[in-house]
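chain below, 115 aa
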Amino acid sequence: MEKPASTRQLKVARELQKALAEIIRAKGMAAFGGALLTVSEVRVSPDLSVAKVFVSIFPSDKQESVMALLEENLRAIRGELGHVVGKQLRIIPEISFLLDTSLDYAEHIDQLLKK
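prediction:
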């Protein structure tokens, strides 16, 4: 079982989430093929060196292409993140983007309930 995140991890995760959301918003929907991208959660490792960034993408048919774009631009996004939070953090964490499927799951449950 995974131990609960420390207060520091939670604070860093919240800061990274805000910064990444702003970076993605500044790029605009056009940069991601017209898809709406939301940073839904960030989880940081105990040593603050790795951050898992969960994103939800709408419409869902663009998920694969947007995830590919995020992977291609990973270094540039991390660089921008460094400029934004570089004063607060000594080490800018390695980031990996993961698809947040909670919205799809909620939609699936909704469909089942309607039957």
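The beta strands are 36-44, 50-58, 94-99. The mean pLDDT is 89.
thats it, cya
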